[in-house]
Amino acid sequence: MTRILRAKLFNSTTTNPQPRRLQQVSPDMLDLVNRSCLITGGSKGIGLAIAARFARAGATCTLIARHERPLRDAISVLAESGQQDHRFLVGDVGDKGLWEQAIKMNPGIDILVNSAGQSQTSLLLRTPIQEIDDVIRANLLGTIYGTKFYLKEMTRARRGCIINISSVLATTGGAGSSVYAASKSGLHGFVKSIAKEASRFNVRINNILPGYIETEMTAVIRSSTKAETLPNPPLGRFGTADEIADAAYYLATNDYVTGIDLIVDGGYAIR
Known about the structure:
By secondary structure, this protein is α/β, with parallel strands linked by helices. It has one domain: NAD(P)-binding Rossmann-like Domain (Rossmann fold). The chain is built from 8 helices and 8 strands; from the N terminus they run E-E-H-E-H-E-H-E-H-E-H-H-E-H-H-E. Helix 1 (about 45-55) runs parallel beside helix 2 (about 70-80) and helix 1 crosses helix 8 (about 240-255).
């Protein structure tokens, strides 16, 4: 039996602003005006960076995450773009009931970003069964569910863009990340297949494969790993969430790209 978390829809006028300055853009960069976006995992990290990037380009964003307070704070950040109609939905992407609620409240989106995810920081033999289920549920099933629900609407409209946040570990693997890597690897075949199914309806779908990015998720890795054994990409640093947001913006605005795995990892995969 699945447990459906509270599903609430709010707009930015209902929040208590906690400002964080957004980068200003020129009017000629507002090429997502009148576009509606839904971003899972949008309350922090990569998801929030993508939402902020899209909002600066003129898009209206709906954010999904499991906890209300971080979502309220995120909406306050997006409100700095000048728009006041950003919204959020509270729930678990692994529950199909959340998606049923989302599609009723916000059926006509142009861009879906599946960014919600859960990490793994232990060897498989030490990983509890429940954690295995949770990782697969958040990283793979949630993306499949969201894509299934919104793909139907996009094919009817004969336009749409879906962006999944995968991981470079989908291609390299990593000790202590077996389940996480497996969940992200599943997105490779999924995107290739959906790209073939949906292209005739002018719907595009792509993966972004980030390397190690400065987020709360990788902060766990830093705190539990000795400095000399931390991942060291050829470019010599962890990436930023804004750099992944730039990749998402590229995929959202280039109408001739579909079915790809876009690696943004500072060269980690070529080591």
